[in-house]
User: Fold this.
Amino acid sequence: MLLIGMLDSPFVRRVAVSMQLLGMSYQHGNWSVGRDFERIRQYNPLVKVPTLILDDGEMLSESGLILDYLDQSVGPERALLPASGRARRDSLKLMAPAIVVAEKARDQLQEVFFRPEDKRHAPWLERLQAQMHAGLQLLDGECQRRGDGQWLIGSSMTQADISVTCAYTFANEALPDAAIAAKYAHLGRLAARCEMLEPFKGTHQPFFRPSG
Assistant:
């Protein structure tokens, strides 16, 4: 299989971490939508990352779809997202704000890096920041409720822990002025615990900042 996308994307990274945790071998196309637009388009006409090319040539796009495919491939006993019941619903309820954090952090970066300074809209940036911090606060509160040193769902790591950690690390590293680590200590401790594990270490890529 071929996984396309840079690992400084939390969406690409949560797929890569999941594949490693599940023991799935893959090649990695560490390609940027900006720098490698035409190269990615050869595999995915939408030029979206992550994109996963299966061994038979089938193309899967969007991290949620890819993660579902991975879980279906290994079966419910090994799946990273609980298959049913309250545990599945609670996992999805935590993954939802994690995706908001990742998306709103990404949108802030796009506003700064790709829009001329005189065209930036301060109220829009403030809204993005408020949405991101709301997600972080919710997740930090859940980490505190569960207790430091615990997983978010049950007694073992699930996709909730993976997605939350990837979103937190991305936002924290990409937006240093937001002081995320100082504000959300319980969430930071969960992320630090995950980042010590080999699948996280092996997929950590410092955030790439465009020049200029």
Remarks:
- The radius of gyration is 17 Å.
